[in-house]
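Field reference: sequence -> structure
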Amino acid sequence: MAKLWIIGTLTVIHIVGILIFTRGFLLTRTELPYYSNCSDVSQSPCSSPNPQQCWTRPTVDRLVIIVLDALRFDFLAPTTFFKESKPWMDRLPILQRLASINGSSSARIFKAIADPPTTSLQRLKGLTTGGLPTFIDVGNSFGAPAIVEDNLIHQLASNGKRVVVMGDDTWVQLFPHHFKKAYPYPSFNVKDLHTVDNGCIEHLLPSLYDEDWDVLIAHFLGVDHAGHILGVDSLPMIEKLEQYNGILEKVIDVLGSQSGQGGLHENTFLLVMGDHGQTINGDHGGGSAEEVETAIFAMGFKKSPSSIPSEFDTSSCEINLDHKKTCISTIQQLDFAVTVSALLGVPFPFGSIGRVSPELYALGAGTWNLESTNGDNSQNHSKEEEWMQNYCNVLCINSWQVKRYIDVYSASSVIGFSLEDLSFISDIYAQAEEIGSCSFKNSLLYNESSNSSLPALRRQIDAYFNFLLSVAELARSKWTEFNLQMMAVGLGIIFFSLLIHFLAIKRITNPYGISLFPSGDSEVSFRLIFAYSVVVIRACSFLSNSYILGEGKVAIFLLATTAFFKLWYSVKRKMMLIEAIIFLLLITILRFTIEVGLSKQAMTSQFISAHSSWMLEIALGHPIWIHIAEIIPISALMLLAYLLYMTMISSSSWGICKYAVLGTILCYILIAVHWASESSISSSVLMLQGIGKNSVPRVIYVMGLGQLLLLAFGQLFNKERALNSEKSLVIKTVAMLSACSSTVIILSGKQGPLIALASITGGYCIMRLENIERDPKDNTAGALTFDPLSVTQWSLLATCLFFSTGHWCAFDGLRYGAAFIGFDEFVLVRQAFLLTIETFGFSYILPVFGLPFLVARQYLMGQTEQDGKLLFMKLSQVYLMYGFITATTVIATIICVAIHRRHLMVWGLFAPKFVFDVAGFVLTDVLICLAWHYYLGREDGTKRRNTTSN
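Structure field:
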C-alpha cells in the first residue's frame, strides 16, 4: 500500500544523492588566504626594482575605468569589421575616431574575451582577481559576497591608491571596505534603465576635477537592463548607446583639457570596457561568442613615443566610415588584473594566472622611458630595446608570481594539479629562466660587445609567453577539482531511488489488479514498451551537446510521435478522431513557438510592444497589429474566466472549492484591467488611468496565497472522505489549478493566457485519448489497465511548455524582469520566489497538480464513476509513474555531465542543464508530496487506520 511516507522518502533520497553528486561535480576552486606584498619580489629571480618602487615601476599616475555593463563587441568596433551593418553599430563614434591611426596613436580598441559563465558577479570577480571563474558562484549573482582572496582593488587600497566607485552597487558588496568614496545604486531592477546611469553621470564629471583619487570606477547599467527587457535591436538600446557617447565625449574633453604638462591629468589612463557581452535578445550568462566577447577602449593622454614592436602586435586593421585606418587587438579578460597592476605599480594579485598584455601595457607612456642606472649604456639603447627590456622584466615578475601561486595552490588544495601537470609547468618555467636575457647584467654584456640585445629579448619574452599561456590553458582544462568518488556515490543513490520507485509502482498495482506489466496482451505490451522507449530516447539525447541545445525540438518531436501513435488507434477504432487531429495541430503550433522561444522571442508584453507584427512580418508599429496584439491576450484571459465559470455552475457540490474558483475569476478580471491600463488603447479610457502598476500584481499574489490557504484549511477540516468519487477529484483539481494559475499567468506576461489555453487543450486531448486502444465495449479494461503512455505525453507536454514560453536550460534563459512584476525594489527571497514561479509555473507546478485529470477521465467522459479505493490506487500510480519518468531523465543528465566533465562546453552548456534539471527534479518531488497530501492525504490515512484495525 502506497503511503505518503514513500514519496517523502524518495524526495529525501533524491536530495541527498543530488547534494553528494553536486559536491563532487561543482566543487569551487580553493580560495587561498594569501596576499601579495611589495617585499615578495625580492624572492624572485628578476631584476631588482628601484627601492622606492614596488614590483614594477608605475607608468600611469591616475586611472579612470568606465564600465558599460553588457557592452557587446559590435557596440564599439566599427561596422567595417562585420559582414553586415546593424542599427546598434557605430553608436560610439567618439571612441572609434580616437582609436583610428590618424586620430591618436595612444588609443586602441580591444576585443576582450571573457571566461564563462558571463554573469556580472563572475566577470567582476575575474577582472579583479585575475583568476578563472568557478561555476558554483553563479548563484551568488543575486547576493554578491565580499571577495576574500587577493584582488586588484585590495592591492590598490593596501598600497596607498585612493579608489572612488560609483554606479552598480555590486562593487560595494564585493569590496565593502576598500573605497575612499562610494556612490552605489541598486542594480537588480532590470526594468529601471536610468537610476544607476543617472547616479554615475551626477558624480562622474565633477569627480574628474577632484584631486583626492587615484583610480575612479564608474559602472553604467542601462545597456544591460535595456537588453534584458527589450533586446539589442530596440530603440531604448540605441538611445542608451548615444547617451553614453555624449557622456564619454565630455569625459574625454575634461581629461584632455587638463593633460598638459603639470596638469591634473597629465598622465591619466582611460579604460572604457564591458564586463561581458550579450545575445541579440539581451541575455548573458552562457558561453556563446556574443556573450563572452566584449570590448575595451584604452587611451593614454601622454602619447607614447612609438608603436609597439611588430612581433607583439596581433591587431587586425580596417578602414572605418571616416576612411581612417582602425586597428583592433585581442585581449583575455584574464590578463586585465595583472596588466592594470603593472601600469599602476602595485603587486599582482596572488591568485592571478593572467599575462601582462603587451599591447595594452604599451599604451602607458611611462613604459617607454626607462630610468637609467647606467647613463652611458642606457643612452645607447633604442626606444624599442628600452621598452622590451622593461616589458621583459615585468613578464619575469609575472611568470614568477604565477609559478609561485601554482606551487602554493597545489600544496594547499585538497587535490590541486597532478604531478604530471606540475612537472610540465616546472619544465617550461625552468626553460624560461635559463635564457635569462632580462637581467641587467646580460643587457650590459650585449652592449659591451656592440651587439643588439633584441633577439635575446625576443627569445626571453617568447619563453615567458609560452609559460604563461600554457598555465592558463592548463588551468582552463583542469581547474575544476572533480571528486569522482562523491559523484559515483551520488549517482548510485539516485539509481537506488529508481529501484524504490519501480517497486512502489509494482506494489501498488497488485492489490486491485491494475495491470502495469501485462502478459498475454501483445498490444498492451507494445504500448508499454513504446512509452518507455520514448522516455529512454529523450534521456539518451542528453549525451549530445547539440541535442541539449535543441532539447525543445527533441521533446516536441517525441510528443508528435506519440500523437501519431494515438491517431493511428483513433482511425483504427473510428473514435475521437477530432481530438487526435486537434492534438497534432496544437503540437504544430507549439513547434513554432519553441522556435521563437529559442530565439528569446516569446510573446511577452515587452516583445509585443517592440515587435507587434512579428508573426506576419508586417511593418512595425502599424496600429491594427498593435491593437490585435493587445486584445488577443485579454480575450484569451476572459475565455479562461468563462470556462472556469461554466465548469463551476455545472455542479452544485463544489462546497468551499467554489470560493477559490470565484477568486480566480476575479483575479483574471483584475489582470485584464491591469494589462488594459498599460496598453495604448486605454489612453482614451479615463477610468483606467491612474491605476498603480504594482497594485494589481500584489493583489493577485495575496489573493492567490489566500486561495491556497482556503483549500488547505478546507482539506484539513473536511470530515468527508478525501476521494469518494471522480467527481470530487475533478472539483479539487480544478480548484487547485485555478488558485495557482493567476499568479503564473501574470508573471508570464501576455503570453500567459495563450499558454494556459494551450496546456488545457493539450491536457484535455491526452485525457480523452487515454486508453483509446482498448476495446470500447470492454468497460472494465479501462479501470484495471494502466497506460503509461498518457503520463509520458503529459511529461513531454510540460517540457514543451517550458521551451515555448521562451525559457531554456541556461542562466540567460531566465526572464529576470518577471521577478519585478509588482515590485521596484530588490529583496532576494521574494524576487527568487517570483522568478521560480515564472520559470517553472507552466512546466512543473500546473502539470503536477493537473495529473488527476488522467485518472478522472471516466467522469469527464460521462461514464460510470469509480469507487474511492480504486481511484486512490490509480492516482497513486500516476504520480509514482510521473516521478519515475522525471527521475529517469535527470539521471541521464547526471550521467551526461559526469561523462562530459572535461568537455569544452561543460560550464557553458552541460552544467547549466544539470542545475536546471536537478532544481526541477527536487521541485517535482516537493510538488508531488503536496499534491499527494492534498488529493490523497485523508484517503491514505484512512487506509492506514483500516490496515491497523484489521
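Note: The chain has a mean pLDDT of 81.
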